[in-house]
TrEMBL record:
SUPFAM superfamilies: CRAL/TRIO domain (SSF52087), CRAL/TRIO N-terminal domain (SSF46938). Residues 97-252 form the CRAL-TRIO domain. PROSITE patterns: CRAL_TRIO. InterPro entries: CRAL-TRIO_dom (IPR001251), CRAL-TRIO_dom_sf (IPR036865), CRAL/TRIO_N_dom_sf (IPR036273), PI_Transfer_CRAL-TRIO (IPR052578). Gene3D superfamilies: CRAL-TRIO lipid binding domain. GO terms for molecular function: phosphatidylinositol transfer activity. PANTHER family: GH16843P. It comes from Phanerochaete sordida. This is CRAL/TRIO domain-containing protein.
Amino acid sequence: MAKTHEVLTKPAPGTTVPVHTYDDEQKAKLQALREYAETLVLPEGEAYRENELRWLHRPDTAPRYMRAAKWDLEDGKKRIAGTLQWRREFKPDLIPPEEVRIESVTGKIVINGFDNDGRPIIYMRPGLENTERSPRQLRHLVWCLERAKDLMPPGQESVAIVVDYRSCSLRTSPSISVARQTLVILQQHYVETLGRALVVNLPFILNFFYKGIAPFLDPVTRDKMRFNPDLTELIPKEQLDASLGGTFEYEFEPESYWNQIVSACGIAPDGTRIENRGEIRETVKHGDSSVAMLEEAQEKNTHEFDATLETVEVAA
């Protein structure tokens, strides 16, 4: 296969996305959690209110929190209240692309392709670290998580993370404190979002790193981690980076990659979303010429595959 700069933003044809089903008791708890959460949103007139409602009304939000709480409604309420407060302060859905773009130029975190279950793949390559440790690194990671969620096909609620430690050293490896911060965000505010964590090419010298974060891994996260698996058993070869055993000859080019992700996800320069063509025209009218590309991508960003998407029911 010839080398390409094209980012894969749809699963392979024929991909089957497992979906969760719920019994009547679980549905009642989901509704109760949604009603409770809506009492916590900001009042009318507050700028971030619509963002909170958008997040709460995502079809996966309440189910993820109830599954994480093992269907304990009171625990689910505590969890979702904590995340609402965190999102209000961090505003993960309003991070302007240019704020974190510098973190992407080496390709240390790349969203590209989907696994066998239609999970968006986030490749992490610590050996390509290009910036000093700072809060911006964490904001970049969160920005990438939000974009991966944007690219999820219908019914999919989780991502696959592939951590490739090739060429990584103690100097470029994230500090244990940064890793712990990352785990807190993943485990508390992106609950049930990690579907798989696949670690490859881990050098012996970095084993201590995983020993350092192991106490902070909850059992659910730990069970989703696999070390040096055969990636071709989990990811279609045509969607898997050729450097990791696939046939997808993707060649990273920073500007092309960034523009494609921003376009496919419909993100405006200020971090807001371009929901429809009217909003796109309004944004362009105010001088944001870079949004012209987003208008073209908006029609593609319907989360519908060219192939027929099958679904199978998985017991909750």
